[in-house]
Design a protein that fits this description.
2 copies of one chain form a homodimer.
Chain A (H helix, E strand, L loop, with lengths): L2 H43 L6 H17 L4 H20 L13 E4 L4 H11 L5 E4 L7 H4 L5 E4 L6 H7 L8 E4 L5 H10 L4 E6 L12 E8 L1 H13 L3 E4 L2 H28 L4 H7 L2 H11 L6 H9 L3 H21 L3 H15 L1 H20 L3
Parallel strand pairs in A: 1-2, 1-3, 3-4, 4-5, 6-7
Antiparallel strand pairs in A: 5-6
Helix pairs in contact in A: 1-3, 2-3, 6-7
Chain lengths: ~375, ~375
């Protein structure tokens, strides 16, 4: 085939693709208009945006459609999920149903902070009266806290204790809550300072999210859950999932998934630097999976060290747990030093058993993730 | 608004969405037909499937289209990238241009293995004559290796050395290559055993990939690169990116991104088990980012321990490097034990500086990844 003829033919096909893609843009704009109307309707009726069953049914139907049309079902599912994310954003632009219209006032202590802001915004758009209490407002705290129905402490972890201590004069029926990433200590302090309903919350998301749909909020009961349960229902109206757990179990779990991971990731970054690694070369050479791991390390160092040191230094119990990790690391390294592959493989199999079905589920999920990481590559 | 009226109105809108989604499926099926034809045309003309400039231009154009239609440009880019992945798969179904028609025969030692298979398939679909040499074929290796132009060693790392040793009687002009994940030792051994062109390769992907588009193959020169450069060009025709580096630098980098990460991930899994972590609770409680980290740990334990122990035990130099990591970990932990936040923050800032612009780039990339992880959630 001559190049000129190839060029001609490929240009015809490329124009066809461009035409399809332009139609695609138009179709998606049409879809967006409809979902915006769905949002308005739901907001007016006070119905939740995220309806898991509807989402699942829609995916099921169009997976089948796709297969009948000779397309990959996974392709259409991926695209619909991406469209749903967009449609949730458009629907979130409207207001939400107010679960408790009898609520007089909500005060967010630290409501100007990154995470506090999100709650201020959502409560406001659910037609609650919301006030913020920041560092400089304590002189008029009496006024701000007068007649309050809910107080949520949303300050950096190092201030949580001292702020809670100041909240010793709330109305008896006021709900006192915090959103600190540790739960046992703040909960204990809230219980001491306030006799009414108390609940500890840990929102499992950062300030980057654009809405609460599919996000998790961990709930640790203090007292009088029947008085604060409407608050959890409000979170669910926003699309969040609540998960109840004992404060102590929460802290133990977080020490392992949050504190320990943060710390060892930081240590790994420090290790790379000290070993004199060639970072740009590492990036060039990385497979999708190593790139993903490198990203998870590097991302941390773009953020505020105070954020991490506060979490890591908050609970001295974590130190011994992390020391145990380092010692286990050295213990396993001894097997390598002695060339004892059998011992290593034996340990590996034990851990595999312990992971059980999760190992396979995670492998499957990670493969889907890695394909998505590949999609992002520009060259 | 009455519920019945809400139900009526929402059902109308939901039907509209379903209609749009059905049109979407049809449009994508049409697109797939066109891209399949592009594939056939390119295959016949011997043109590469992946043309980065064309991809970039197409994205640019439709980002603009999307914005003009009141849509998010990122939405259309994400969807087009997903469609491109699919279109590459459809195009890959056709043959590839054969870069070197003078090549008489390619032998893949271990060509029945997971990674070897991929190369056998790609060479075959590029119209090369390909033979496999497996464990039981050595009695007739004389016959298989007669008149061979390229031999690629694609066996598990623990057999690489002994296999290379057997390849001491290749035609002078034959290219000898391996695809082991370490490079210095196999390269040294290939150079010793064969006087012709030698090249060490490390494909930075696993056996799960469906084509080589956007994948990286690391290249460590042995000798006579002018004789094997057509092989690298062939990889590029398949869509892969080649990256040349010294064998020693490769091994050093891999010890840190591959060996060290594997080992510490395994140690972390062992730690979780030994600490008696409640895995299902950890999963329930995880934020998208902790879930991603947990997945990256668990995925490993769904795989063959021999695979990992071979890599970890392959190079004793790695032991001292990993020991240094554990000692640094304990050293940093001392700061925490002594409550020395300043020292910790100081160290953190140093590492941030060392990461430089990568830290911000990685943060941005990880945010895009986490949104994609959210999309995958089913409830």
């Amino acid at each position: 085939m001559k190049t000129s003829s190839f060029e001609k033919e490929i240009n015809v096909l490329r124009n066809d693709i461009d035409e399809v893609d332009s139609q695609l843009v138009k179709l998606l704009a049409k879809r967006r208009k409809i979902t915006t109307n769905v949002g308005k309707l739901k907001s007016a009726a006070g119905m939740p945006i995220y309806v898991p069953e509807r989402e699942a049914a829609l995916l099921r139907k169009h997976r089948e459609n796709a297969e009948n049309a000779g397309l990959s079902a996974d392709l259409i599912e991926d695209i619909l999920r991406r469209l749903m994310r967009d449609s949730y954003i458009s629907q979130d632009a409207n207001g939400y149903r107010c679960v408790n219209t009898a609520c007089k006032k909500i005060v967010i202590v630290g409501g100007a902070g990154q995470l506090g802001k999100i709650f201020v915004d959502l409560f406001t758009r659910s037609e609650y009266k919301v006030s913020i209490l920041e560092e400089n407002d304590w002189s008029r705290s009496h006024e701000i806290l007068a007649d309050v129905s809910v107080v949520i402490v949303a300050v950096p972890i190092r201030w949580t204790s001292s702020i809670i201590q100041k909240l010793n004069n709330l109305p008896d029926d006021c709900i006192l809550a915090d959103i600190t990433s540790i739960k046992e200590k703040p909960l204990y302090e809230m219980m001491k300072v306030h006799a009414g309903p108390v609940v500890g919350l840990h929102p499992m998301f950062g300030p980057d999210i654009s809405n609460l749909i599919k996000q998790t909020i961990i709930v640790c009961d203090g007292r009088l859950s029947n008085k604060y349960c409407w608050l959890l229902e409000q979170f669910q109206v926003w699309g969040a999932k609540t998960y109840s757990v004992e404060a102590n179990s929460h802290d133990k779990a977080m020490s392992m998934v949050q504190v320990m991971r943060h710390f060892s990731t930081i240590a790994y970054g420090y290790h790379l630097m000290t070993e004199g690694a060639n970072l740009s070369q590492l990036v060039e050479m990385s497979s999708p999976i190593y790139r993903l791991e490198l990203i998870m390390v590097g991302r941390l160092f773009a953020q505020n060290p105070i954020l991490y040191s506060d979490i890591i230094f908050a609970n001295p119990d974590n130190i011994s747990m992390m020391k145990r990790f380092a010692l286990r690391f050295l213990e396993l390294l001894k097997d390598v030093e002695q060339g004892d592959k059998d011992a290593f493989v034996e340990m590996f199999k034990q851990v595999s058993n312990w992971f059980g079905n999760y190992a396979n589920d995670f492998l499957k999920e990670s493969k889907a993730m890695l394909l998505k990481a590949d999609d992002l590559k520009s060259n």
